[in-house]
Amino acid sequence: MLRALLFTLALSVIGFSFVLFRAALAAGSVRPRLEAVAVGAAVNFFDTLGIGSFAPTLSWLKLRAKLPARLIPCTMIVACTLPTMLQAAIFLALLGVHVDAALLIAYAIALLAGGLVGQRLVVRVRVWIVQAVVAAALLVAAALYALANLHMMPAGGAATSLPVPLMVVAVAASFVMGVLLNFGIGHYAPSLLMLSLMGMDPKLAFPIMATGGALAAAVISGRHVAAKVADLRIAIGFLLGGIPGVLVAAFLVKDMPVEWLRWLVIVVVIYAAAVMLREAVKAHRQGPSSDGADLALARAEGLAD
User: Fold this and answer.
1) Residue 61: other Cβ atoms inside 10 A
2) What are phi and psi of 95, to 5 degrees?
3) For residues 167 and 159, what is the distance between their CA atoms, to the nearest angstrom?
4) Is the distance from CB of 230 to CB of 78 less than 8 angstroms?
5) Of the candidates 233, 189, 208, which has an alpha carbon nearest to the alpha carbon of residue 79?
6) DSSP conformation class of 182
7) Is 120 helix (H, G, I), strand (E, B) or coil?
8) What are residue 244's phi and psi, to 5 degrees?
9) Angle, CA of 18, 21 and 26, to the nearest 5°
10) Alpha helix ranges (H) inside the chain
11) Dihedral, CA atoms, 261, 264, 266, 267, nearest 10 degrees?
């Protein structure tokens, strides 16, 4: 099963790379922006650690790249797709043999299904309300996880699989996280925290969440490239910079002591919650007029992380 997943990912990487570079050649956009190479290396390094790439990538695209607003979400998705697929391949190769294949596959499919369903639901709910609620929930969960790390409450943390009841809960939660991708809420931090609290080795959360992210991104990015709604020079730059960034971070995660990794999970979750609260406050202050922009950026976030 692991070999089949790796083979599928390899074919997806080759196929998407062909589509991307063929489109870039046709548009005369093969020469990357050097600043994009540097930014791609940095954001994908932190993305591989589980922190996510949405916030810094979005800031750079708005402040430095100066793209038209309508191109920002699609460019972000396309630019981060291949590094995310590389993350999935590396973590599967390094750690996938230890992960329950049924959990990994079901989790990824549920995330993709939730993302597709969420595209229809997102227009009916204010984005800032969802962001605020999830951010608050993450902070509470991070506090509980910190207590567990300090041995002030019982916790697992070494399992390679989940019992059936917890697996059902995890897959259902993955579907919900897929829905929330459309509201600007990435799934890396919640996945890390949830699977760790359920007793799994935190390292084994990385191949699970990266595979789900790769699947979701691959489904969408090809459409954006074909529709010519992304800046391909930036995407090529992120690809060239992202590959070494992902490689360094992936092997750092592999060799990191579990105790350090558990504290990294807490830092990641607090960071994600802080970003969500900031965006929620900003959107609330701007009022209903910002809903359209929030919707576009929210859809981008879920596929960039």
Assistant:
1) 23
2) -125, -10
3) 12
4) yes
5) 233
6) T
7) helix
8) -65, -35
9) 120
10) 2-27, 34-48, 54-60, 72-95, 101-121, 127-149, 164-181, 188-197, 202-227, 232-255, 258-286, 291-304
11) 180
Whether 234 contacts 79, CB under 8 Å: yes
Q: Are 122 and 128 in contact (CB under 8 A)?
A: no
Tens-digit pLDDT string for the chain (305 aa): 778 888 888 888 888 889 999 999 998 888 888 899 999 998 899 888 877 676 678 778 877 877 776 677 778 888 988 999 999 999 998 888 888 989 999 999 999 898 778 767 755 667 677 667 767 777 776 776 677 667 665 555 678 889 999 999 999 999 988 887 766 566 877 888 888 888 888 888 889 989 988 888 787 788 788 888 889 999 999 999 999 999 998 888 777 776 677 677 678 778 777 877 887 788 777 765 444 444 444 444 444 34
Cβ–Cβ < 8 Å for 201, 158: yes
Is residue 169 exposed (0-12), middle (13-18) or buried (19+ Cβ within 10 Å)? middle
Strand partners, 159: 200
> What is the spatial distance between Cα 172 and Cα 115, in angstroms, rounded to a whole number?
13
Other C-beta atoms closer than 10 Å to the C-beta of 140 total 10
What's the sign of the alpha-carbon dihedral 66, 68, 69, 72? negative
